[in-house]
UniProtKB/TrEMBL annotation:
It catalyses: uridine(34) in tRNA + AH2 + O2 = 5-hydroxyuridine(34) in tRNA + A + H2O. Belongs to the TrhO family. Pfam families: Rhodanese, UPF0176_N. GO terms for molecular function: oxidoreductase activity, acting on paired donors, with incorporation or reduction of molecular oxygen. Residues 126-220 form the Rhodanese domain. This is tRNA uridine(34) hydroxylase. Its EC number is 1.14.-.-. One of its GO terms (biological process) is tRNA modification. SUPFAM superfamilies: Rhodanese/Cell cycle control phosphatase (SSF52821). Catalyzes oxygen-dependent 5-hydroxyuridine (ho5U) modification at position 34 in tRNAs.
Amino acid sequence: MTPENILVVAALYKFVSLPDYIELQPPLLSFCQEQGIKGTILLAKEGINGTIAGSRQAIDAVLAFLRGDTRLADLEHKESYTDTPPFERMKVRLKREIVTLGILEVDPNEKVGTYVNPQEWNDLISDPQVIVIDTRNDYEVSIGTFKRAENPQTQIFRKFPEYVSKNLDPKKDKKVALFCTGGIRCEKASSYMMTQGFEEVYHLKGGILKYLEEVPSEESLWEGECFVFDERVTVRHGFEEGSYELCFCCGHPIAEDDKTLPKYEEGISCPHCFDSLTKEKRVRQQEKWKQYRLNKLTVNSKETDH
């Protein structure tokens, strides 16, 4: 990546009471568009959540604009860098929740678990009395997770309350440690568990990404790679790009080993979608892959000409 074409990707969220969130949408969208920012920001009564990309100057301007609201003055964000635009347009969406649990009564602004810094996380999850739970979706957990972590095997975050009711008991499970990619899901999950009577609920501040950024690999209790929602697909310690890529057909992360299996065909199918691919779907997918490759060749040809 050369300095002139590096884009900053900023991921941000904050649970904070925003009763006027509807009124905040138009000026925020307008300002982001003026700065040439692309990405998505969600606004709800419970707070803000989003990922945006743009030049260094533009990202700094948008963050300053947001922090100009006293309620967002301490808004934290995480950065990564790319030379390929990860988003096509700018959207500011109004939502009921900034991360969907499906229980509107759960509000991290009113009740939340205990934050644990990355440097203290190893000691906590090494305690045999602590139940360690990965609050992410099943496909994310399969790529990498912490030692001793339980996989709730949920396909969507909405299923987390069902997992808790069937597998955990506040009278028996006294200490619970939760984690997720960037901190937002486990923060809400901790709030939910406390409403269910769990007294000692801890969650990793800044999520897995902050842990991989700050904890040396030789001291790490993380195993595997971490799925991220951008063009890198997965990352390792120090934000080094991982080894996974996305299936062009279904979007599921695929490892190098997956490509050696009979059900993998580049651009057409992978082991995760092969069985659901009808003859009609296969024909459509073959055409999509053909058009994608033609478009890519055209773009590469234009770049070469310049």
